[in-house]
């Protein structure tokens, strides 16, 4: 098994964390900005979108990080991360999809502008709007974790916590005026006890 992508990518790290939870030891190849170029023909043959990560599992090639997570759990006895029962699985999918759409959309401009200092993301009004949207989304997560007092999809750790846990770290390291979120603070402490989080949560 090979994973193509640099470890500074949040989407590569979610795949590596999942592999750790499943006891898998893939070979990682350094692709992306500052590493091997994603527009090389060899890479484009695997992912025409020129994005990481890419999973190569024997003769099977897969891109899109959340799809990779689901595949790994399904193929490598990860039912405890991605339950087969329809309602339990739907709850995990719901929060994974929420992270990929609502939460990511909310934080993207503010994170790139405030944390990464990207020149293309320095419009003050757009940063403010992103911070407000991000705070609203984190309020949704705070309420959910207040209900479960455990993990995002319910009482048990799941794939949803891998994708959301990494996004929560971006919230914590980005400097702006934020509301207190005690349920999320407690959640981070639970995640920090997992070896995969320790190994892969930070770039």
Automatic annotation (TrEMBL):
<comment type="similarity">
    <text>Belongs to the GST superfamily.</text>
</comment>
<keyword id="KW-0808">Transferase</keyword>
<dbReference type="InterPro" id="IPR010987">
    <property type="entry name" value="Glutathione-S-Trfase_C-like"/>
</dbReference>
<dbReference type="Pfam" id="PF13409">
    <property type="entry name" value="GST_N_2"/>
</dbReference>
<dbReference type="InterPro" id="IPR036249">
    <property type="entry name" value="Thioredoxin-like_sf"/>
</dbReference>
<dbReference type="InterPro" id="IPR040079">
    <property type="entry name" value="Glutathione_S-Trfase"/>
</dbReference>
<dbReference type="InterPro" id="IPR004045">
    <property type="entry name" value="Glutathione_S-Trfase_N"/>
</dbReference>
<feature type="domain" description="GST C-terminal">
    <location>
        <begin position="85"/>
        <end position="203"/>
    </location>
</feature>
<dbReference type="GO" id="GO:0016740">
    <property type="term" value="F:transferase activity"/>
</dbReference>
<protein>
    <submittedName>
        <fullName>Glutathione S-transferase</fullName>
    </submittedName>
</protein>
<feature type="domain" description="GST N-terminal">
    <location>
        <begin position="1"/>
        <end position="80"/>
    </location>
</feature>
<dbReference type="InterPro" id="IPR036282">
    <property type="entry name" value="Glutathione-S-Trfase_C_sf"/>
</dbReference>
């Amino acid at each position: 098994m090979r994973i193509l992508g640099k470890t500074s990518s949040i989407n590569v790290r979610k795949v590596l964390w999942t592999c750790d939870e499943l006891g898998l030891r893939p070979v990682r190849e350094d692709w992306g900005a500052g590493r091997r170029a994603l527009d090389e023909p060899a890479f484009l043959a695997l992912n025409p979108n020129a994005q990481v990560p890419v999973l190569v599992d024997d003769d099977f090639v897969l891109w899109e990080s959340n799809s990779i997570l689901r595949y790994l759990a399904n193929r490598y006895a990860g039912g405890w991360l991605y339950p087969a029962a329809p309602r339990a699985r739907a709850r995990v999918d719901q929060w994974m999809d929420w992270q990929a759409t609502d939460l990511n959309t909310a934080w993207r401009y503010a994170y790139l502008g405030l944390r990464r200092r990207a020149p293309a993301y320095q419009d003050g009004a757009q940063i403010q709007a992103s911070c407000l949207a991000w705070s609203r989304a984190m309020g949704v997560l705070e309420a959910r974790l207040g209900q479960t007092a455990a993990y995002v999809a319910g009482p048990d750790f799941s794939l949803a916590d891998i994708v959301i846990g990494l996004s929560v770290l971006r919230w914590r390291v980005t400097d702006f005026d934020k509301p207190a979120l005690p349920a999320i603070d407690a959640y981070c402490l639970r995640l920090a006890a997992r070896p995969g989080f320790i190994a892969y949560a930070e770039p």
